[in-house]
Amino acid sequence: MSQDETIKRAEEETIKRLDALIEEGISLAGEFHPNYYGHRSLIDMSWLNITPTQKTNLRLWRVEVTNVLDTLLPLTRVYLEELKLLTDLRVEAGELDVYAAVKILERIKNKVSGDHVPGLSALVAVQILEDFIAMARHLYEKEYFAPAVALCGAVLEDGLRRIATNNNLSVEEKDTIGDLNNRCASKKVYGKHTRIKIDGWREIRNTVDHGWFRDFDKIEKKEFIEMIDGVDIFLAKYLKK
Fold this sequence. Notes:
Blueprint: H1 3-32, H2 52-71, H3 77-86, H4 98-113, H5 120-141, H6 145-166, H7 177-186, H8 192-209, H9 213-217, H10 221-238
């Protein structure tokens, strides 16, 4: 499966999760507000007598909703705090509004499924690349230094391709990390300091890709983890723009 197909599947899974949370939220709202009339002041106060199980179910739903919206940050930041307030059991009865929280989820779902969230693919791509970075970090911790560097370099190249594309720059199959780095920097996608750091990571990666293991063995081990951490920070910053 290609990475684009993986991203598409992840987007579909996000919509499915939102659908499930909306359905569960509607069910919870029916329990919390059996006489809901569409205005907070008219919410049935019988919610104060709900069972411990119902309270637990709301808390669990709230956590799951928060987790989904956290994965979509910064696109959902504008909704997240309001949704938390609407479903907080510690607030006054008139402020607890699960129906309103469900409406927020429906709004987010409509934006995602209607392609009104242009940054969603980039966010999903970041999550996928972060998984590979985590794998590289694990390899490093197990002292498989060459595979860790090779994987990290592949992630960097893929990320640069996406960053260039997102900034309307030409990208060709034959482009290397150096080509992409120079192109992005020359168009002011990022500054000179970042360009130099990426060039350093490129040199480390090339010692593995080209089999220059005498040079590779001369590199201090801390530079490998610095590369992994640096690529992680770089992609999180520039792919989410």
